[in-house]
Each structure stands twice: as structure tokens, then as C-alpha cells.
Design brief:
With about 350 residues, the chain is an alpha/beta fold. It has 14 helices and 17 strands. The structure holds S-adenosyl-L-homocysteine.
């Protein structure tokens, strides 16, 4: 039994069955035994691999998309370039490198990273250095300034609740105990105001997920973008409206049962982009969601891939071609992953996205 399983078992014994968001939050971010707090899970040898770790082109194109928004908004003289959940810092490093030649951009920016894991903060400092970078625990702590921000695979790591339609209301998926082992249980709940609109399009037995931590993050970004300008580019897997149980645990790039290895496996759930959109505050708009493959093609990934290919050969060229396909092909990350931007209501969306 892992140290975290012991803690969870004791907690459930004392307080009764635990909601999924509490379980997921402790598994990922428990200060001593959490999955993210104790390790760097990224990269080819890790539990999962993300777009910036697959190819430098991802960060380069996102960086240049933010540059275009910055120019469209009159090149604000001081702004925050921010990232939520920067992992190893690869995306930020690629964005900074790709934008170095843009006159005035680097002189105007300060870098802000929202990261809860001490291990990953150290990885980010190794790659990016410490000077000119500020780390924050929460998006709510970002400065009150024009904000150009990216978040790749951040929202899928925020804890979710799972509710199952039952008659005129909902029952909640919780974690209980049987014979000393963690087991799934269903518990009656009173009303769930956040799901009032889902009573119309669900039937008995349907599972709907809600992410209570997501709306405050969107609000924090949107308030700054509305007041001072900026843009947020959010990339994640998911779709417009949550339906079904999407919670999954990954260990060594393989699915594993969610309750089996608390703190030892990554836990993620599909992002409900409609719920993010509903949290956007006045003065800020959101783009339509666009598949990652379409977005990257519109930003010119094929031209960039061809340029990079010129200096590659053999196995390196094969890996580069495979990486391009992996980021954009429909069967790979091209359609499962979606992109949505926030931007001031007085401007248009970043390039590659539509109102
Ligand atoms: N964006 C990176 C890493 C994705 S993994 C990439 O694309 O490679 C998720 C990241 O979000 C990790 O850095 C993790 O530590 C961070 N994270 C997860 N939950 C968080 C929370 N509640 N607050 C701050 N950071 C969080």
C-alpha cells in the first residue's frame, strides 16, 4: 500500500466517502506524496508526453501567435508573458527563443509561471534561469497588467467531480472503503446548480463531469485581459460539452485503474470547453474551439516543418516528420486536442482562431 493510500484510507475511515475532486486533488498535489509534487512525469521516458516535448514547433507557433495579438493590440509597453502549468519549461523556452527577434517584445515582457509543484519549478528554473521570472501558486496571483498567457494540458489536471443522472437529479461518484480497499461508490447529492442546464440533455445513468477549480482560473485571466488587454491560448484534450466518464490514470504511458495507485499515476479528465466559456467575465470574449491540427496548420506548421527538415537527415529527420504528424494528424493529437482563446471584446482573436 502506498503512503498516500494509507492517508486516504484513514481519511475515508474518519470522514466517510470522498468526492472525486478531493481524491484527485490529493493524488496529484498532496504536499508530500502527490504525483506532481514528488516527480517530473514528462518526456519520452516519463508517464506521458505533451506537445511541447514532442516538437519545438509547438512552442514556436504559440509564441508567434501571441506576438501577433500583442501587435494587433498596439504593442503594450509592459506586459506579463505567462504560462499555467509549465511542466519542464519547454514551451516557454521555445516561445522566448522564437520571439527574440521581434522588435520591442522582449524589452516589454516579464515572465510569470503558475506552478504548484516544487519539483517542476526546479526543472523550469534549470531550463529558463531565475532572473526575470516570477513563480506563482495560483492564476489569481498573476499581476494586474496586460496578460499574454498559454496553458497546455493544465486544465485537464484540475480535479473534477463526477455526477451521474438519476431521475430528476444526480448521484455523485465517490471513493469509499470495502475490506480496507478503495472502491467506487455512488452517493445521493442535493441539487447541483452548475448542472441545472444539463437536466435537459442527459438521461438516467449518464455521467457529467464538472471542474470547480477551472472557473476561478478563467475569471482571473479574463478580468486582466478585459481590463488591460492581452490574450490567453488554452490547449487541451476535451470537447465543447462534457458527457461520460473521462477520468483516466496513466502510468509509464499505459492506462491503469484510477483507484489503484494513488500518487503514483497521472490523473486527468477531458476539459469541458463550454464550462470554461461560461466562466469568461464581461469585457472578455472567447473564440470558438478549434482542433489543434487545424490551428497549427493555419499558423504555418508545415512551412516551419519543411524549413527545419532541411538541416536533418536519417533517424532525426524521421523523428521530426513523425512529430509533425503526431501534433496534427486526426488520429493522433490533431482532433482530440482543442484550442480556445480569450481576448478583449474590443479586438479579434489570436491568429488561427475564429470568433
Ligand atoms: N504544460 C506542460 C505540462 C503539462 S502537465 C506541457 O505541456 O508539457 C500539468 C502541469 O500543470 C504541471 O506543470 C503541473 O505541476 C501543473 N499543475 C497541475 N495542477 C496545478 C495546479 N492546481 N496549480 C498549478 N499548477 C498545476
Amino acid at each position: 500500500m502506498t503512503a498516500l493510500t494509507e492517508r486516504l484510507t484513514a481519511l475515508i475511515r474518519a470522514e466517510g466517502p470522498m468526492r472525486m475532486d478531493s481524491f484527485m486533488g490529493l493524488c496529484l498535489m498532496h504536499p508530500e506524496h502527490g504525483y506532481y509534487t514528488t516527480r517530473d512525469p514528462l518526456g519520452a521516458a516519463g508517464d506521458f508526453i505533451t506537445s511541447p516535448e514532442i516538437s519545438q514547433m509547438f512552442g514556436e507557433l504559440l509564441g508567434l501567435a501571441l506576438v501577433q495579438s500583442w501587435m494587433d493590440q498596439g504593442r503594450p509597453g509592459r506586459f506579463a508573458l505567462a504560462e499555467l502549468g509549465p511542466g519542464r519549461g519547454t514551451l516557454m523556452a521555445d516561445m522566448l527563443r522564437a520571439t527574440r527577434g521581434v522588435p520591442g517584445f522582449h524589452a516589454a515582457l516579464s515572465v510569470h509561471l503558475v506552478e504548484a509543484s516544487p519539483v517542476l519549478r526546479a526543472r523550469q528554473a534549470d531550463l529558463l534561469g531565475q532572473s526575470g521570472i516570477t513563480w506563482h501558486d495560483r492564476a489569481e496571483d498573476l499581476p494586474d497588467a496586460p496578460l499574454f498567457v498559454v496553458a497546455n494540458e493544465f486544465f485537464d489536471a484540475l480535479p473534477i467531480r463526477q455526477l451521474e443522472r438519476s431521475g430528476a437529479g444526480w448521484r455523485e461518484h465517490v471513493v469509499g472503503l470495502r475490506d480496507g480497499a478503495l472502491v467506487p461508490e455512488l452517493e445521493a447529492v442535493k441539487t447541483v446548480p452548475a448542472l441545472a442546464h444539463r437536466l435537459d440533455d442527459t438521461k438516467d445513468g449518464d455521467v457529467v463531469e464538472i471542474c470547480p477549480a477551472a472557473a476561478p482560473v478563467i475569471d482571473a485571466l479574463g478580468l486582466r485581459i478585459a481590463a488591460h488587454g492581452g490574450a490567453a491560448i488554452i490547449v487541451d484534450y476535451g470537447d465543447w460539452r462534457s458527457l461520460g466518464d473521462t477520468l483516466q490514470a496513466l502510468r509509464a504511458q499505459r492506462p491503469t485503474p484510477v483507484l489503484d495507485a494513488p500518487g503514483e499515476a497521472d490523473l486527468t479528465a477531458h476539459v469541458d470547453f463550454e464550462a470554461l466559456a461560461r466562466a469568461v467575465p464581461d469585457g472578455c470574449k472567447h473564440s470558438r474551439i478549434t482542433p489543434q491540427g487545424v490551428f497549427l496548420e493555419r499558423l504555418g506548421i508545415t512551412a516551419r516543418a519543411q524549413t527545419l527538415a532541411k538541416s536533418l537527415s536519417g533517424a532525426k529527420l524521421d523523428a521530426h516528420v513523425a512529430a509533425h504528424r503526431r501534433l496534427t494528424a486526426p488520429g493522433e493529437m490533431g482532433t482530440l486536442f482543442k484550442v480556445m482563446a480569450l481576448y478583449p471584446e474590443t479586438t479579434g482573436p489570436p491568429p488561427g482562431l475564429e470568433t
